[in-house]
Amino acid sequence: MAQQERARRTRAAIVEAAATEFARRGYAAASVNAILEGSNATKGAMYFHFQSKEDLARAVLVAALERYTAITEKWQGSTLHPFEVIRGIIDDIALGFQTDVIVRAEFRLIVEPEFYSEVKTGSGRAWGLAGHELARQAQEMGDLKPEFDPDKFTRVLSASLAGQRFMADLVSDSTELRALFQESLEVLLYAMATPQWLDTWQRVGWPPLALVATKSASDLPV
Prior knowledge:
single chain, elongated, disordered C terminus
C-alpha cells in the first residue's frame, strides 16, 4: 500500500508539473526536462506512468474534466433559480482559472491541433451539458424569451466566456476574470431573459455566492 501511495503521489506531481509547463508555454514548446525538474521525479518514473508528452497532456485534460465535473456536481440539487445556478457554476470556473494550474493548462491545450476534439468531448462538454439543462429549466419556468432556446443560450454563453478568457490574456486586463464572466452572463440575460425575470433580478440582485458555495472542486486527485 505504501508503494502504491508513493506511485500515486509521483504521478500526481508529474501531472501538476506538466500542467504548469503547458499553461506557461503551450503544448509544442513545453519541455519534458522542465516537467521532470518541476516534479522532482526521475525520467524512469515519468516513463513508467506516461509514454510520451502527448500522454502527459491527455492526463492533464482528464484531470481538468474531473475539475469541471466536480464544479457542475456541486451545484446539482440547488434550490436557486437556474440562472443563479449558472452564475455560480461560471464563477467557480473563473476561480479555477485563477487558482488551479490544471484548469489553465487545459485552456492552452485545447487550442492546439492535437487536442481540438477535446472541445466537444472534454470539460467544455461537461459544462455545456449542465448549462443546457439549466437553460431548459429556465425555459420551462417561462423565464427565457420564446424566440430563444437552450441551445442558443448555451452556445452564445460558452463562446462569450471563452472569448473573455482569451482576451484577458491578450490585453492583460486588470478586471478580475470572475467579474468578466458575470458580465458575459448578464449581457446575455438582458437579451434572452424575459422582462418579468429581469425586473425581479434588477430589484433583488444576485444572491451572495458565499451563502451557497459549500465545497471546493480544487482538491481532486490527479
